[in-house]
Amino acid sequence: GAGVSQSPRYKVAKRGQDVALRCDPISGHVSLFWYQQALGQGPEFLTYFQNEAQLDKSGLPSDRFFAERPEGSVSTLKIQRTQQEDSAVYLCASSTLPGQGPYNSPLHFGNGTRLTVT
Amino acid sequence: DQQVKQNSPSLSVQEGRISILNCDYTNSMFDYFLWYKKYPAEGPTFLISISSIKDKNEDGRFTVFLNKSAKHLSLHIVPSQPGDSAVYFCAASREGSQGNLIFGKGTKLSVKP
């Protein structure tokens, strides 16, 4: 496909369950980002990959959150022992080049995965 | 503590008139600013950006103005169209942040026919 694809679109988990969210970035995009968007808020940065290297994970809220991109394309965000406060839309974005600037391409976002923890 | 603030949660404008969306920021290290547009159940879509070395960038009906001394930017849409109805997010980044965008909470724009 031409855009960033995320699956599943919706996920309902019981508190304490583990979940895995998948992101297929645009083919050839070097950079991949995960963001979390709570209801009524703007997206908040979670983590960043350049190819397979996770260069920034400063936004991950706890050690229950783990992300990987083993072959530099598809990425998975895993949340262990989900809590109600994890309920949010998880957005994946990719871009052609590292960083943001006048000469770099902006982020292309997927439609997100809406996670509801009951 | 929010570094990017959009103080108007919503804005309603008549079709054909100008829409002005505002954004304030607190971090003087930000050097690149973007506006994203978001329809319900979709991801944000890039609209327009501006570097801190400029004070204006224009793309068709969309113009972004940057006032660095006031740490303020605005998005002007003229003329506004019903299809512009969406949530608009202001975002900022700083050099070397590797694309870690800081977003505001968004402003919901409604353009009435």
Structural class determined from secondary elements of chain A: mainly beta
Give the oligomer, counting copies of the same chain as homo and different chains as hetero: heterodimer
* Helix content bin of chain A: under 10%
The SSE string of chain A, one letter per element, is EEEEEEEEEEE
Alpha carbon gyration radius of chain B: 13 Å
Low-confidence stretches of chain B: none
Q: What is the number of strand segments of chain B? A: 11
Alpha plus pi helix count of chain B: 0
Write the element-wise H/E pattern of chain B from the N-terminal end onward.
EEEEEEEEEEE
Terminal Cα separation of chain A, in Å?
Answer: 33 Å
Enumerate how many helices of chain A there are, as a single number.
0
- Low-pLDDT parts of chain A are none
Residue share in helix of chain B: under 10%
- Percent range for β-strand residues of chain B: over 45%
Instruction: Choose one word for the global shape of chain A.
Output: globular
Largest sheet of chain A: 7 strands, mixed
Task: Note down, in words, how this protein is organized.
The complex is a heterodimer of chains A (118) and B (113). Chain A is mostly beta strands and 118 residues long. Chain A has no helices and eleven strands. In chain A, strands 2, 4, 5, 6, 9, 10 and 11 form a seven-stranded mixed beta sheet that branches. Chain A has a four-stranded antiparallel beta sheet with strand order 1-3-8-7, with no helix packed on it. In chain A, strand 5 and strand 6 form a beta hairpin. Chain B is mainly beta. Chain B is 0% helix and 56% strand. Chain B contains no helices and eleven strands. In chain B, the strands form two sheets. In chain B, strands 2, 4, 5, 9, 10 and 11 form a six-stranded mixed beta sheet that branches. In chain B, strand 4 and strand 5 form a beta hairpin. Chain B is globular. Chain B starts with a strand and ends with a strand. At the A-B interface, strand 5, strand 9 and strand 10 of A face strand 4, strand 5, strand 9 and strand 10 of B.
